[in-house]
């Protein structure tokens, strides 16, 4: 009898990988919102989360969340990341211009806060602007302003990586405007304060026009993931030239806002569906082939016809037993903010256990 050991081994190893993936979990942060991990629109009389498509941007830094809300004016609220309590707002002196003067927010590694407007589309009279706060007490400065960096719409997505003179900002181009293209704008700086911009484009399709409009995140300083829903695009860029490295069909066609982080050595991408508010976490070991790990169970589906929102990884805490606990925040416009605790086991012990189980299963198969 000839044993097909390689085939059996492959099946066993796949089972071991599945076992590892099953150990990553997310649970509602019970201290946040009303105790269920969800700060819903209007909960507790809070006026900066509603159902009028006025909140689209959310970011995390140093135990605080930054929420962009246009309810009653241009607001960037500071929230306690543990409870969701409002701690005040950033100074918005001098902010103006665009379809919306404030829309999305992200934070650099140095704590500088960046907020962009929505320009739909860019024109000789409508500039894409990015404002910078050196810290929560600072007056904003205009870090970037351009009427020509793209031919389309900018400001639906924003992400920042690095700090100081190494800060990079990315914003996905939309489909609005004559000559809109299939890329994203990269902003860089030599002094950490003033930025220059260029449009990264791709020679063929995919990516298609607008593929980075509703979800975007750096994985490192030369790679970007993005989506408009249905499909995630993994890309690299050098100067103004982009290269498509892989594509993943996401679990839900409405998964758009996304964010990337490495937790306990495991690269992860979190998304939120703008259709039902379900949050999903993917293994991004291969960012061009995302593998689903876990999905939240609760759902809320106030209409969000714009497909907007934001996802933000928060604090990552390594435990004495080798596991890591990460906080994760997700906002689906018109449906409030969810907060989760994500548990990621120790990579070494999980890998050994998975391989042990695989070897045991294979041994049993060989004996048959």
Task: Give a structural overview.
The chain has 368 residues and is mainly beta. The chain folds into 3 domains: 1-23 and 347-368; 28-55 and 255-344, no CATH class; 90-249, no CATH class. The chain has helices at residues 5-22, 347-367, and strands at residues 25-28, 38-39, 55-61, 64-69, 75-80, 86-89, 100-107, 113-118, 128-133, 141-146, 159-161, 168-172, 184-189, 195-200, 215-220, 223-227, 231-238, 241-249, 255-263, 266-273, 279-283, 291-295, 309-318, 324-332, 337-344. The strands form 6 sheets. Strands 1, 2, 23, 24 and 25 form a 5-stranded antiparallel β-sheet that branches. A 4-stranded antiparallel β-sheet has the order 3-4-5-6, with no helix packed on it.
Q: Which short descriptors sum up this protein?
A:
368 residues; mainly beta; 3 domains; 4-stranded antiparallel β-sheet; 2 helices; 11% helix; disordered C terminus
Summarize the structure.
By secondary structure, the chain is mostly beta strands.
SSE inventory with pairings:
Blueprint: H1 5-22, E1 25-28, E2 38-39, E3 55-61, E4 64-69, E5 75-80, E6 86-89, E7 100-107, E8 113-118, E9 128-133, E10 141-146, E11 159-161, E12 168-172, E13 184-189, E14 195-200, E15 215-220, E16 223-227, E17 231-238, E18 241-249, E19 255-263, E20 266-273, E21 279-283, E22 291-295, E23 309-318, E24 324-332, E25 337-344, H2 347-367
Antiparallel strand pairs: 1-25, 2-25, 3-4, 4-5, 5-6, 7-8, 8-9, 9-10, 11-12, 12-13, 13-14, 15-16, 16-17, 17-18, 19-20, 20-21, 21-22, 23-24, 24-25
Helix pairs in contact: 1-2
